Amino acid sequence: MAAPRVAKDGAWTFDIFADLFADPAVCLISYCLPCVQYGMNAERVHGPAESCPSHGLKYCLYGCVCLCGLVGGPTRKAVRHAYKLPIQPPLGDETATGIVNPDCLTHTIPCTGCFALCQESNELRTRNVTTPLDPRPFDWAPVPPTATVAPVQAEMKKDAPPATPMTTTTA
């Protein structure tokens, strides 16, 4: 029997590719029912504000159009930030400017999404997560544009003469 793994901050306990079959049940659920696995992971990470089926449904719907990274990325990022874990697989630097988020990309690339779900689930189980890591509920609505406020006009002086209307002359 293999020795139990010890979770350390700053390093993943399970590699995204090498430790895929560390827990065969999690591997099977992550590959065959990724929506269910994501729902269970998200409920552990974000708390009971939304139910497991609700999270799973979002992952499924976004997955139908190959955008499950928009749902899975924030959850993976919350796990990484809570334990100071590196980006894995190394897809880029999250401090770099641009629109590519490596956590979202990990869930979007075919097959690595299932691997990421498996890795996240094993990590959460090993670290014995009992309280939400990132309890803020997601607001999936688009961010409303900021309102532009017109500049305040200075009050007219009371001593100023009234404006005279323009007169037109006809010839």
Automatic annotation (TrEMBL):
<dbReference type="Pfam" id="PF04749">
    <property type="entry name" value="PLAC8"/>
</dbReference>
<dbReference type="InterPro" id="IPR006461">
    <property type="entry name" value="PLAC_motif_containing"/>
</dbReference>
<protein>
    <submittedName>
        <fullName>Uncharacterized protein</fullName>
    </submittedName>
</protein>
